[in-house]
Amino acid sequence: MEKTDVAKDPAVKKKGEDLEYAYDAVRVANKFLESQLQKQQAEWKDELEDLRNQLSQKICSGSSPAKKRFSFTFISLSAPTTETLCAARPKPAAVAGLLECRKRDETKLLKNLITDLRSEGALALPPGLPASVIFLCVRQADSSGDQARARSLCSAALVAMKAALKKQTSDLDMTALWLKNSLDSDELVSMTTDLSDLTRSLSDLCIQAYQQLLSITETQLQKLIVPALLESETIAGLSGSAAKLVVSRKRAGSDPRPLGADAPTMALVLRQLGALHTALSRQALPQSLAEQAFRQMTYLICASALNNLLLRKDMCCCSRGMQIRYNLSVLEEWLRSRGLAAGGAVATLEPLIQAAQLLQVGKKTDADAQAIVLTCTALSSKQIMKILTLYTPHSDLDEKVSLNFIRTVQELVKGRSDSQPPQLLMDVRRAFPVTVPYSPTPALSADDLVIPDSLKISFLRRS
């Protein structure tokens, strides 16, 4: 049978040719882009190698220009880590001033330096000594080319510090000690080999230690805030309501103090805050960190006291407002005398300060109403109206707030731009993010460390 060729449709033939041309154009463009990418990649590798060499020199000299931050909200931004710069060299240069810990002595080192460290001897140590010793041992292993042992020792130290922190959940001084050593370890380890995973874990440990430090102080303050700040008769003879306040708390079952026990005063509140300040200062922790810690504490004081005030009619009177304002002035002066006001610790008290002033100002005329709305900017509209509604005269010289005055204030607060949350009560559990600026650690040498014999780590060899 004879084979017959069938002629193609000219339109179909032209369409096929167009597709071939389009495919060739795309293939040429892809090759061009590929060559451009390869060229850029080669240039990038050359630049990266130059940066590595420069950073390697800075790392080995014991300094780093990077900035490091960690956040209370569990967002940790660590200093940029490098690849194993010193390890990349075929013959690592010897570094003086390090400490050598033999493999068989590592368990003993961690036991004596971290696990079995007790507060009696620990508080006499120079701030950050355990972290410095561990770092010099890790650095010695790293500089000798044994990166596996450096990583192993650093990981074991991290686990030991976590366990030590967990055992001392109620010890303020020891928690501050491990916060200091966690911060120092995080900064020092970032200057050695590629331990980015460990620096993240160390940052998390810093956050855990900081939270534990605040939690210990909060637990002690919670039972003191209301009786000391709101109920204590600091200005003697100002009102005869102090005894009535205690009786009302006893009847309501809200007073945990045993019968006949002394009522907490501002002196006890300042003593607890002083213990926190001493713990932070003893470990030479950054001043900015102390300022942020006390901002968190004063927020707790303000929120707890104001919430209690907003729920108790017996608190809302002029004489009680004067007592509260005086107690707050004592706290403000204490914070300023220790240089803690710059971080917002005093400003955080403003809602309670304005509530105390609201109890004292005149509440009769339209001018009084306008003054209240203009000055009580740290209080929400609901909080202002609640205090005015609860206001109760406790003497013949005082008068009850009229319903017309309350309505006048209510109309005025509707027209203001309220920057405060609409809720009546403050969130007592609110946590502020905390930022710790990285300060370059000076060159560390074993010759500069004062290691007491009580630590029993004389088996370490200086190199």
Automatic annotation (TrEMBL):
SMART domains: DIL (SM01132). It comes from the Eukaryota. CDD domains: Myo5_CBD. GO terms for molecular function: GTPase binding. Residues 23-54 form a coiled coil. Residues 155-415 form the Dilute domain. Signal peptide: none annotated. Keywords: Coiled coil. This is Dilute domain-containing protein. It comes from Gambusia affinis.
